[in-house]
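Box 4.2: Ligand-aware structure prediction
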Amino acid sequence: MDKGVFITFEGGEGSGKTTQINRLAESLTHKGYKVITTREPGGTPEAEKIRDFLVQREGGDWSPMAECLLLFAAREMHYNRIIKPALDEGKIVICDRFTDSTRAYQGYGHDLDLNKIEQLKLISLGDVEADITYILDIDCKEGLARSGRRLSATQINNEAQREDRFENLDTSFHERLRQGFLDIAKNAPQRCHVIDASQPLDDVEQDIFEIMLTKLGG
Ligand code: Z5A
């Protein structure tokens, strides 16, 4: 491939993004594609520092606009230093969350004006969007239960560093978030594919891979 493919995974807490990204990356690598996986917030050492502010329990009490500015600061460096160079080399880039998460979490979830989010996106990234976005959709309670089980199984020495600042928000926040992702998908049907993430792992994987093969032309 001369030009790479930019794939993003989106969804609420515990929707299975990380698990499915690993599976998709393995299948595509097995088929001979050059694949990199990355995540947001994060992906560069600088952006990983911003991640700690945003997702750790004691990371800070940020306003939605401050969160949004930090996210685009991290994303600008991540895109230009990691994602774009890999795409230019013809690689497939699979990213755990991207701009749709800002639209859903800060916009729908925290009620930040969606037009302001689009303006910040234009300033920092221009018209950059993924080629394919998978939105893993799951009932909020089920997703939070999965996420809670994963968090409690994670070994951590300092509780203040636990990545659960968003998990700890109330159920109505997570309901708005879910609806936000579904609206985003409805408004960008060429790019976004909603996947029923409540299915068993293998079935979710199969739905994702079938769409991928169609996009890659078999
Ligand atoms: N954030 C934001 O506000 N604005 C932005 O612009 C961006 C991010 C980019 C970090 O994201 C936080 O940053 C995020 C929003 C905010 N909110 N939080 N918290 P993150 O992606 O790193 O965090 P996350 O969404 O909480 O990830 P997660 O809990 O790790 O979920 P996941 O990656 O979607 O799921 P998973 O780790 O693959 O699976 C979770 C568990 O469920 C695990 O034990 C699996 O084995 C299990 N699982 C997965 N799939 C299944 C199925 N199908 N059946 C049964 N069990 C399953």
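In the box above, the bound molecule is Z5A. Strands lie at 5-11, 35-39, 92-96, 132-137, 192-196.
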